Structures are given as structure tokens and as C-alpha cells.
Amino acid sequence: MKRTRTGVKICGITEEAGLDACIEYGADWIGFVFFERSPRYVSASRAAVLGKRVTNNIKKVGLFVNPDDTTLKQVLDQVELDILQVYTTPDRALQIQNQFGRPVWVSIPVAGKGDLPSQCPVQRILIEPKPPVDALHPGGNAQQLNWNLLQGWKPTYPWMLAGGLNPENVGQAVAITGVPAVDVSSGVESAPGIKNPRAIARFIHNARAPVIV
């Protein structure tokens, strides 16, 4: 079964080599993490420097965890972000989208079919596994969702799959779920926060290669 071109986001960019690989191999989005407890955290000034290297119409995504308006404004005053990705409530995500005039993606943690959202208040929803109760981060924990939960689920809005993806399993994940776009961070790293260009190349290729299941 062939599929349409899968969108790919590489998140947690902190250094030039990883960013340049995203550009070379055709990522659609790159993500900067503005959450200080993350090993992939970058300051606004560092993200601004990296962002100036972005070409090929790649969109720059800023990831925030329960951000207040002041935090968002301080980052946006320094970095040209195309999209805001937030861990917060859907109502707050919509408020941010309206206030800051940029598309917003909201992350929805899922443990079972009952957690799958029926509506999308903002531009896109990211589906990822619910974090462990003792997790220090709301996402980026390298957990893998049970993809079978998503079989037959066909939302009418844009969505993306995250959590535990890597070059070896992304093709199967896309084939099983039919997801239009995928998000990876630790799955293409050689060390926390350091991207592996060869892994990025393989991930993007395998996300878009036809798979039969």
C-alpha cells in the first residue's frame, strides 16, 4: 500500500550539524526547545543564531511547556518562529494562537482510544504517549505509543505522531497509523541534544518510503 509524502519534524535542534542535516535531507519542520529542564534546551539567542541558517522553506517550531505570555513574547522578540508547539490545555493553546497570531500545535498525551481527541482547537494536534508519573518532562521521554490504538482513527484535522520513533520503526508506524506527519528527537541523536546526521537522513527516507503491512 503506497502512501502520500509524510511530513517530518526534527525536534530538539541545538547545533549546526544537526540543523544542516535537516536542511540537506528535506525535513519539513525543525524544533527548538524552550523548556529549561530539557537536555535539548536552547536559549532564545542561540535559537536565533541557528534559525538564520534555515533554508528550503523549512518551518521553525518553538516548543514551550505551560508558557505564560511574557515568556512567549520574550522568545518571539528574538527568534522568528513560524509555529508554536505547546504543552498546555486546548483552551490555553487556542488563546495563544489568537493572541500571538501564529499557528499553534498542542500536544495531547494518549494512553487509550478514549484519550483521542474528537476536535482540534488549533492548527494541529500532536499525539504522543502519556508520560510516566515520575517523568521530569511532559514529552521527549522516548516512549512508544501502541500504534494499534490509532488504526481506523481518521480525524478531520491535521495531526502528527510523536514518541519513541527512530529510523528503524518510523516506516511501520506510518503504515499502521496512516499519520500524515511524524516528530522525532532522541531517536536521531548520538547523545542527548546532539543529532546524528546519518540517522536524520535515514529517518526522513524511511518515513517517506512505501511500506506494506
From TrEMBL:
Family, similarity comment: Belongs to the TrpF family.
InterPro entries: Aldolase_TIM, PRAI_dom, RibuloseP-bd_barrel, TrpF_fam
Catalytic activity: N-(5-phospho-beta-D-ribosyl)anthranilate = 1-(2-carboxyphenylamino)-1-deoxy-D-ribulose 5-phosphate
The organism's place on the tree of life at top rank: Bacteria
The UniProt record lists the keyword Zinc-finger: no
Name of the protein: N-(5'-phosphoribosyl)anthranilate isomerase
Keywords: Amino-acid biosynthesis, Aromatic amino acid biosynthesis, Isomerase, Tryptophan biosynthesis
HAMAP family: PRAI (MF_00135)
SUPFAM superfamilies: Ribulose-phoshate binding barrel
Organism expressing this protein natively: Acetobacter pomorum
